[in-house]
Design brief:
mainly alpha; two-stranded antiparallel sheet
Length: 109
């Protein structure tokens, strides 16, 4: 019986992890690809205009801190009066933002 419960819990956890990965990919495609590109390189018309970083570059990733990425996704990025990235704090939950940060980390080569 204990083995059955342990197996069931393991399957639930694995399902939740894959669900978060699917949600993160879906949120990336819906909210981020216009500027950052599907591949995370930022080589889109809008990404180049706004100076989007290449998330596949190990040095770029090294310079990024998870809490700063979380804040940028939640609150957006402004440069003076110019909005460089809109805020997604009202559209995404804390868990979805956390999953997006992990998704961005996975672009690293």
């Amino acid at each position: 019986m204990k083995k059955l419960i342990a197996s069931s819990m393991a399957l639930l956890v694995a399902g939740a992890v894959s669900l978060h990965a699917a949600d993160a990919k879906e949120n990336w495609e819906k909210n981020c690809t216009k500027c950052h590109g599907a591949d995370g390189k930022g080589k889109t018309k809008m990404g180049e205009k706004m100076g989007a970083k290449d998330y596949t570059d190990a040095k770029v990733q090294e310079g990024l801190k998870d809490d700063a990425m979380t804040k940028a996704i939640k609150d957006g990025i402004k440069d003076g009066e110019t909005t460089k990235m809109k805020a997604f704090g009202d559209a995404l939950s804390a868990d979805e933002i956390k999953a997006l940060v992990k998704f961005i980390r996975d672009f690293k080569k």
